[in-house]
Every structure is written in structure tokens, then in C-alpha cells.
Amino acid sequence: KFRPSIRHFPAILSNANRMLQSAKLLDIPLVVTEQYPKGLGSTCSELDINHCSINCPKTKFSMMIPEVKSYLEEKKTRKSIVLFGIEAHVCIQQTAIDLISLGYEVHVIVDATSSRTDTDRVFAFQRMRQAGVFLTTSESMILTLAGGSDHPQFKQLQKIITTEAEDTKLLTFPML
Fold it and tell me: pLDDT, tens digit, for every residue of 39-60?
């Protein structure tokens, strides 16, 4: 249901796919939540989330619901969380702030995250940055996760990032 109303949706979808493909290659656990899928619909079929560790419906805006909290408790060694999706000013922002309060280092992929309006999107990024969230791009995070060209999956990751990330018009907002 969100597809027609999310700003820069095709680009956000493409960049989210870059992150999903990379997470799969790097064997990074994927946690998916869906905001009221009965009424709002499920995750877009174009996004391959088949390798997700858990996929939970929710009505709370933050994804820090009991199932996700339990999953993260089991994975205590993880201290960094990468977030992307919709909507930046609601679910992503509230999740990021909740995770920061729990002591996690949070990274939001700005070119794979959006809202229905650019105003909400930009101010959500500003608020998250003020809260201690690291804002980054899909390519930067993919290469950070690889750590170097000596990573065994680097050639496959390089294929993902060789195609330039879709433009999500963030550079038109100098306040970021």
C-alpha cells in the first residue's frame, strides 16, 4: 500500500535490495518486521527476504517488539545494527532511538530509507543523527562490512556495488 506514496520508491527499493543481497553474501542475520501487514500489506515481493532470521508482524511503530528483543538477546555478541526501510520518521526513527537506548551502535542506510514526504525524511535523519545514529549509504556500509578487498566475498560484493546506487535526491537537502 505504501508504494505509490513513498518518495523515491524505486530508488529506495533498488538500494534496499543491494543491502539484502550483501547481507546474504556476508551471512549477516536479517530481521524483518512488517507494520500491520493485514491492513498495509507485506514486504514488497521485489525484496528477497527469504534468508531472514525472523519476520514479525507488528502494530507498534518501533520494531523492538518482544520477538525481536528476544532474538537480539540471543545474539548478545552483536553490538551494531543496520537499519533501512520505511518510514524514516516513524518506524526507522523509533527503532533507532530504542536501539540506542539499549546500548547498540545504530547505522541507518539513508539511500535505502524514505518517507511519504521529503520533509519527514530529512528531519528524521537529522533527529536520528542528534540521537547518536550513524547515517551512511548502501555502498559505504557494504564496503565497511567487507572490511577490505581481501574478503572472500569481495568479488560478489563488487558486482553489487558496480552499478551505481539509485539517486534518492538527498543531495538536494543541504541541511543534511
Answer: 666 667 788 888 999 999 988 9
**Which residue in the block uniquely carries the three cell numbers 516513524?**
90
Q: Which three cell numbers stand for residue 48?
A: 528477497
Provide the 3-class DSSP secondary structure of residue 56.
strand
Residues 6 or more apart from 170 whose CB is under 8 A from it? Answer: 110, 111, 122, 176
User: For the segment 112-136, what is each residue's pLDDT rounded down to a tens digit?
Assistant: 999 999 999 999 999 999 999 999 9
Q: Give the pLDDT band (50/70/90) at residue 173.
A: low
Of 126, 114, 146, nearest in space to 27 by CA: 146
Which residue from 58, 47, 55, 129 is spatially nearest to 88, judged by alpha carbons? 129
The H or E element containing residue 21 is: helix 9-25
The pLDDT tens digits of the residues spanning 86-98 come to 999 999 999 999 9
* 3-state SS, residue 127: helix
Backbone φ and ψ for 135, nearest 5 degrees, come out as -100, 130
CB 46 within 8 A of CB 20: no
Quick one: cell of 72?
Answer: 537480539
Report the predicted TM-score, pTM, of the whole model to 2 decimal places. 0.92
